[in-house]
Amino acid sequence: MFLLATIIVLSYLIGSIPNSIIVSKITKGIDIRDYGSGNAGGTNVMRVLGWKKGLLVIILDAMKGVLAVVVIARLHYGSMPFANVTPFDDFTLVQIIAGISAVIGHIWTVFAGFRGGKGIATALGMLLMISTVDMLIAMGVFAVVVVISRYVSLGSIIGAITVPLALIIRENVFNVNVPSYNTLLPFVIALALLVILTHRKNVLRLINGSEHKLSFSKKKKPTI
Fold first, then answer.
1. 221: pLDDT confidence band, cut at 50, 70 and 90?
2. Which of 146, 168, 170, 180 is spaced 20 to 30 A from 112 at the CA atom?
3. pTM for this prediction
């Protein structure tokens, strides 16, 4: 039990690294949460400081999910401290636990007053390692929605919903034998609901037409 607890804590701490705040402070001497939407995520960095810095933050945040699943989860050895009643093997289950811990760390980061981002990029990194095909489909949907609408929040929400839909369609329409489908499906549904929950303010702004649109033009430096 101690080893699993250590993996959870380490994954949470990795997820808690506030890359957007670090990048904004190093490059411009500001706290990104004081600008734009006030969110500590790659999208807000992109909106305020430009697409290059925003993309860097998104990649770094995604790597937190990858590290939790690929590196930290490998610290586990031996049997689970509880009965594994899921169709996943023990290691995959540990990967899922580590990945979720990293996402929680990103959203409620201990290093920045528990005010983090929305967890999209970190969840992306985690799911790319666990459900690669469905995540690639979701990423394609996300890109199309953002390019057409210029709403990153809308793309994130629809992309999150696409993951369980892709699973359902592949398994039941195209008769693809998705490993551990019956357990993986409720897991990705739960993650999709978490994404929607963290975007609840964005949903309200989308409804009333006040949501920020992503501009593909060069960003001006923020006024400090």
1. low
2. 146
3. 0.83
Going by C-alpha positions, the residue among 194, 58, 195, 65 that lies closest to residue 128 is: 65
Residue 211 CA to residue 204 CA, distance in Å, equals: 8
Does residue 163 contact residue 212 with C-beta atoms inside 8 Å?
no
Three-class HEC string of the chain: CHHHHHHHHHHHHHHHCCHHHHHHHHHHCCCHHHCCCCCCCHHHHHHHHCHHHHHHHHHHHHHHHHHHHHCHHHHCCCCCCCCCCCCCCHHHHHHHHHHHHHHHHHHCCHHHCCCCCCCHHHHHHHHHHHCHHHHHHHHHHHHHHHHHHCCHHHHHHHHHHHHHHHHHHHHHCCCCCCCCHHHHHHHHHHHHHHHHHHCHHHHHHHHHCCCCCCCCCCCCCCCC
Contact status, residue 61 vs residue 42, Cβ threshold 8 Å: yes
Reported as a single tens digit per residue, the pLDDT across 122-149 is 999 999 998 899 999 999 999 999 999 9
Domain borders along the chain are: 1-121, 131-215
List pLDDT tens digits, range 45-65: 998 999 899 999 999 999 999
Query: What is the pLDDT at residue 157?
Result: 95
- Rounded Cα distance between 179 and 198, Å, is 29
